[in-house]
Design a protein that fits this description.
This protein is mainly β. The protein has one helix at residues 2-21; strands at residues 28-39, 50-51, 54-64, 69-85, 88-105, 112-129, 136-154, 159-170, 173-177, 180-185, 189-199. The protein has a single domain (2-201), classed as Porin. Helices cover 10% and strands 64% of the residues.
Length: 206
């Protein structure tokens, strides 16, 4: 009898763990995350300045298309990116990255679910002078893509801790002073974030 109970308990644990690690097929998830943006180009603005690491935060939604495939849409905002020239801060940039991508999710019998992904990015922002000029500029839309790797660790079947590492590559964008182009900016960067996902039940929208 004791052996039967032990085997039943072990089976229940295995089934429960497997359920947590099952694919998110047919389920919506809501994500919130924070992290850092690390610019990868030495010359952020028209070959004259470099940007420093800044805070990033945002969120989005994820939906399981199949057992191992998911689509994710998110928006990440970087509110204060210092731009320096000759060692002195000359501008403060804010950037917003709207991204859509696909993930391939590995689903072992574990709470830990690694994934790889890629997608498209649409970036725009603002640029404010910190010198006496106090000039403000618009960072026009630029388009590119990202490659990412990360994992979700399921605390329960509906809540997961998530870690994401993303490399973002885009074309240079226009810096606009009113209707006049005054330069180019280059937002190629690394984005690292941590956060949580809340997954809704499969029947939430039925």
């Amino acid at each position: 009898m004791r052996r039967v109970m032990i085997m039943a308990a072990a089976g229940l644990i295995l089934v429960s763990t497997t359920a947590w690690a099952e694919s998110i097929q047919g389920r919506f998830g809501i994500t919130g995350k924070v992290g850092v943006l690390v610019p990868l180009k030495d010359e952020f603005i028209s070959s004259t300045s470099e940007a420093r690491t800044g805070f990033a935060g945002g969120g989005g939604v994820i939906y399981g298309l199949g057992r191992n495939l998911a689509v994710e849409v998110d928006a990440i905002h970087m509110p204060n990116v210092d731009v320096e020239s000759a060692g002195s801060k000359v501008f403060e940039a804010s950037l917003t990255d709207l991204a859509v991508g696909l993930q391939y999710r590995f689903t072992p019998v574990s709470r830990l679910v690694p994934y790889l992904g890629a997608g498209a990015d649409f970036i725009k922002g603002d640029l404010a002078s910190t010198t006496g000029a106090r000039a403000n500029y618009n960072l026009d839309w630029t388009v590119g893509g990202h490659a990412e790797a990360g994992f979700d660790y399921f605390l329960t079947r509906g809540i997961a801790f998530t870690v994401n590492m993303r490399g973002i590559y885009t074309a240079k964008g226009n810096i606009m002073g009113g209707d006049v182009e005054v330069g180019k900016y280059d937002p190629v960067s690394f984005l690292g974030t941590v956060g949580f996902r809340l997954f809704l039940p499969e029947s939430a929208f039925y």
